[in-house]
Amino acid sequence: MIQTKDKIIEVVVNHIKDGSNLSELSLNQIAKEANIGKSTVYEYFKSKDEMISNTYLYLLQTYEGILLTDLIEGDFNEQMRFQLSLILKVMRDAKQLMDAIMNQSIKEVPFLSRVHEERIKVIQSNMTDRFNRIFEKGILDNQILVPRKEHKYVVQALISGLILQQANNDMKMNDEEALEFTLEQLKKILN
């Protein structure tokens, strides 16, 4: 059975994903959509801003869990394709937040506080560590050369751009083709 607080967060999550203007969202509207009274919202959150803030933290934790799912056993290609598929999954679910995680454009997302910024920085650091491990595997597998320091930015831009295009259905490919294409382009940059 879904808890009341979870119902409230679920309603706010749906508004975030729909791109609603959260400034115009009222507690009455949230309560109505969650099938609860407005006073019940105040039992869980002091204000609308706190409710939205907690919802963003919930989303960040959820996406971090997906993005940092244990890597599969396999070679560089398999691990990179797996990681790209996780990014695509999250990107489809929350393009705005994922863009902030991948591109460090934290200030462009409304309602993000210092706590959110710190959480995003932790996720970014964990993602950098993860990609470094995958790259090390690629070097050991003789799939890529040792990346130069500046490759990080090109790789981020390539992954963010191509995966976002696929999430928006702009690439005219199925997901497997898009992931393979992205992997091929990454290998060209890293060789």
TrEMBL record:
SUPFAM superfamilies to which the protein is assigned, alphabetical: Homeodomain-like
Claim: Endoplasmic reticulum is one of the keywords in the record: no
Residue ranges of DNA binding: 26-45
Domain HTH tetR-type: 2-63
Statement: the UniProt record of this protein carries the keyword Disulfide bond: no
Keywords attached to this entry: DNA-binding
GO molecular function, one term: DNA binding
Cross-referenced Pfam families: TetR_N (PF00440)
Stretch forming the signal peptide: none
InterPro entries: Homeodomain-like_sf (IPR009057), HTH-type_Tx_Regulator (IPR050624), HTH_TetR (IPR001647)
Protein name: Transcription regulator, TetR-like
Species the sequence originates in: Acholeplasma brassicae
Taxonomy of the source species: Bacteria, Bacillati, Mycoplasmatota, Mollicutes, Acholeplasmatales
